[in-house]
Amino acid sequence: MQRTKKPLIWLMMVALVVSLIPAGLAPVASAAGQTSYFTPDNTANVPLKSTVGLKMTGTGSDVLSRSTAFVVTSAEQAVTGTFTNVTGSTLGANVQLLNLKDGTWVPDSSRLAPAVVTVDPNRPDNRFNATLTLFPGMNKVTFSGSQGPSERSESFYILYDSVPYIEKLQVLGGADNLDLNEGSQVVVDTGDVTIQGVAHNSSKVTVTLNNGEALPTSLSTQDGTFFSPMLRLKSGKNDLVVTIESGVDKNKFTYSLLYYDEENPFSQLDLKEGSDGLSQSMLTDRPTYGGDPAQARVMVELLLPDDKTTAVPEISVDGVLTNIVPKIEPIPSVGINTPSYSLFSFEIPSLKFTESATGTPPVTSIDSLQNHSLTVKYGKNTASTNMNFQYLENETVITDLRYLKDYSGSGDAPEGVPLSGSSVTSADFYILVETSRNPNGSLLTAEYLPRSTSPIELSTTPIQVSPTKYIYQIKGFKNGNQTVQFKFTGSKSSKNATISFASKNYIFVSNLTDGQTYDMNSKKTDKLLLEGKYVDFATLDSKYFVAEIFANGVKVYSTHPAANTKQKQLTLGADGSFEDVEIDIDGDTGPLFFGENRIVLTGTGTGDKGQLNEVTKELRIYINDNNVSTINNFQPAPSKNRSTFLDPYNPDDQWVKNLFNLSTDFTFADKKYTTSLKNFDLAIRGAGATRMSLSMGTQTIFDLNIPDGSATNTTWQDPIISSEYALNNGNVIVDRSGSQKDFVVRLRDLKAETPGTYIYTLDLYNKTGAKTSQKVEVVREAAGYRILAPRPTSGSQIVVSKNFVHFDIEAEGATSVVIDKETAKKLQGTETDRFALDYVGLKADKVNKIKLTIDRNGVKTNDTVEVYYTSNTGVDSQYMAPKVANKYSAFNKQLELSFPKGTVMQSTDLSGIAKFYPNNKLLFGIADPNTGIVERKNDYGSIVGFRTEAEDPNPLSVPDDYYRRFSAIVGDSVNFSPVSEIYWVSGGLGESGTRGDNNYKEPTNGIGPYTVDSLYGNPLTPAERKIKPSQRGTLTLAYDPNVVDDAGSTISVFYYSPSREWRRIGGEVDSKKHTVTVPFDEFGYYKVMKLRRSYNDITNHGWARNILNALYAKGFMAPLRFEQFGTDDRTSRGEFATLLVKGLNLPITSDSRRTFTDVAPGTSSFTWDYDSIETAARAGIITGLTDGVFGPDRPLTREQAAVMIARALELKMVANDSKLQSALAKAFIDSGSMESYAGPAVQAVTKAKIMEGSPVTVAGQKKPQYAFNPKGNLTRAEAGKIAVELLKKSTKVFPKTLS
């Protein structure tokens, strides 16, 4: 008994202990598929509940895998089920992505999302509803809840297989929204439809109609709804393919859509030879048939409404009823408002060709033009069509041309897309040519239309697909939207295709990447090596191709290096490759420096329409010195109006440039910055450092660690401020931005209460611990006055190459400052009392002593400044007009500028309000041809451009893009050579802001292009600061007297506009004085250039070479394509109007109020622009084709040209009456075809001998009669000839001898 009781007692005690353990702490060891707390109802490939307890690794049916998981194809899943042993109010769930690593499913901690679980209120039996949003891939779904203190959970596994699929597809546009389903046919009664659908698990949906291009759709990322663009259906059957993609998955769905066109119900009308011949459609074209007439047959298909008749269809050919019985396929209605239809198909087994008898005796032959008719009658419906084609005996006809995209020349060829209208992706591509019969070795030819000097290279050995299908390769296809004519040798028929090719040319640098850091040893001479390739430039072998390399704005290599410069020859291989391109690295002289550098490579490519196009590759390179870190800038800056630091850091931002432009509050001399400011900032820019330290004397101000810019280290730590410095200076603020490879730091509000010298030391430490140090010495001066400008230029002397100096005198408490009897103007918005004056009238080649008087309420202080003015003319020379005048002359009369009386300088703000500046003095300068710099060292002592000596102060910061754009050979400027200096003309800057405010800017006299106040071409310059003359002036420039006399038609003035591009503006040439004169509307840069070479189609033109060269040189006409001017292209209405405005030098009068709805402000093409067309409209030269529509790209007719010319020249025009009609009838045999409005203009231009008719020989007439051809279009050469004649009569822009 005792033996039995003891084991039983022990078992009861163990059971009692176990029962005391909370259920949530006792793990549930359930086998796979056996649930404990949550039991889902959902079933798919497997029941969801069967996934509970699956193992995460191993093999077998109890291990998680694709076959054991619950598989779904939608991200949103609703799960229902039962729960037990948990409280309903505590239910929850989460979804976590699992990744398979080394055979084990591992949770992804970054992909965890909550789910919504609720108790089903309609069920009393512990039912739950859950909504899950799954991650693509394997998901672990964990349901949880609690009962008392016990937490309970259970996990299930769902594989979200995000395969894309379409849930619903409809066609919109007809009477009903019709559902589209695979395998079924749907009929619509409208030709323009849109496809709407819902695509799940898709990132992209495209729609293809009738084997055309894949069109993108608007796809909603929220619910998968998409809409196609408007689709234009053809009559009858249309093949529709919807492609949906998601990552690597792609599915295509094919549908059939029928379009019933009541006016043209025929969907197929194909002519073919025998049963195996190739079909040619007669629906839209007149095909050519070259086969046996006895074998000609026609395949027909048409769609008609089903009127429920039982009648037999009647089919008549050429009016004769046949016994043809068609196949009828009923198509039931699928919409409330959509009727049912019948699809008819049949074959006309033979077609009797028409014949004619000609000659004596008459010989019967088959007509070349075959015209036949077809009628189908079915119940109440009758449909008729023509069957027209051309017959050429034994002719090989091209019936189809298809573009084989991505075909490489081997393997199975794709079906391709129609060649006409295609955009090819490479200059070399393959096409499929389909013919009506075997060409039997005939050679296929192709040529551009209009005729081009460049042939099209076609493979002479095609790939045969079938006896009537061959694959050819086209090589070296030209850029642009080209029309190409294809035909076989010996054949009279041809087929045209319009092909678009935009070369995807780019520049590849193989050994450097953007943002790369380059380490070097500054103790050794080093160079940066560039290797790479100009890729897909079809223009490499052209004389017009230009490739250039710039380093920090300095041109270092060019395929066309300028003479007498340091530019090196850039040599490219036949494939565009370059190597051994070396750029010097020098911390003092460059062109590459330590720290950030910009390397820009440019190449002249061709655009999508064949026009000139510059391709640019820009690299930002950071050069670190292995020995030390780099201190790029360390200088004082005023605290007032300081720049705001912005993130992310971009060294191109204007706030960075402004930060290091030395303020006029500081003067730099003898390595010291002198100022009267009592507090200022210190600005620092460096590179290659991991930490920095700043101190004043022996006192540390702060230490600062610099982030390396990696993904895990981008945030700046707070600086460690010296407690002693903080005690004396209060709140210390250190601004910082950037990373170790390029950073800027600013310490705000350093105090200089007492006059004296303040020395600051900056230490940078690189990753090796090496230290770079630099000191900056700031002298706080408390003199009665300071001369901020002019500063000594050579030792203690002031030597200038201009007839003026700019005075800026700081005189605290002064009531006035007089400079040689002229009172200086007190500046507004400065921290101290400053007085400025442009002192004009220095005597040449001698010392000028200029007396200064500073007046403080009657207490006067006098001083004398000596300035030597050297009058040698050259780069850096400047001349300021001593007073406002109507005529100006500078640089020994090399430049002369005149204005009408009453002209003043003015600016206009954005509201159109004008401000006038009658006292502004104009500035003239001679610019550096490489940079555009007019004054390398300004009166404040600031260097403009690049530091060339170690003693130079920090240069005025100018983005290198300004220099690069100025000197780059862009577009067709390679065809011109300079024959003069580059002149700078400035009228100054207007005032900005409100006088008395901190942001107020004073107006100025003429200034240089690069100053602290403004950069020429800066789009951020306020409109009210841009000065223009109130009336048009006249500018005359001298050019090289060695240029021959007959160059008057090929010399042109070039103007560098504020958009930073050179453009031709023409000019009237005086070949005896060697000057050229142009209208003057804008300040900026001007130079004289001479045409040195032209385009082949101009040079080889039969009669227009001289006039087209002249129009091109003067900028009145522009080339249409790379290497081609487009002499025989048709001129447009817009081009001719633009030519008249430019040729007649009409002042531009356009604004945002447009005359024509189809010519909007800012629009332009290669041949016309909005400003010129709007100016012509307001001058009454042009009117619209209809009310408000001009049609700038429409071809110009001769009578339209006559009207424009007569209006532009204000020719005397007679009354448009019967007398005029009679006179025109005598003059021109085709006067009856003239529009009535054009008659007076035609007579006026012919009387003025600007236009004339063409002689026409009439049988029986001894003298020829003349035809004006009023509706004929003008080629560009013909339009050019007319333009030259009118300009010779009305202007002096061309010599009278030009012909």
UniProtKB/TrEMBL annotation:
<protein>
    <recommendedName>
        <fullName>SLH domain-containing protein</fullName>
    </recommendedName>
</protein>
<feature type="domain" description="SLH">
    <location>
        <begin position="1156"/>
        <end position="1219"/>
    </location>
</feature>
<feature type="domain" description="SLH">
    <location>
        <begin position="1091"/>
        <end position="1154"/>
    </location>
</feature>
<feature type="signal peptide">
    <location>
        <begin position="1"/>
        <end position="31"/>
    </location>
</feature>
<keyword id="KW-0732">Signal</keyword>
<feature type="domain" description="SLH">
    <location>
        <begin position="1225"/>
        <end position="1297"/>
    </location>
</feature>
<dbReference type="Pfam" id="PF00395">
    <property type="entry name" value="SLH"/>
</dbReference>
<dbReference type="InterPro" id="IPR001119">
    <property type="entry name" value="SLH_dom"/>
</dbReference>
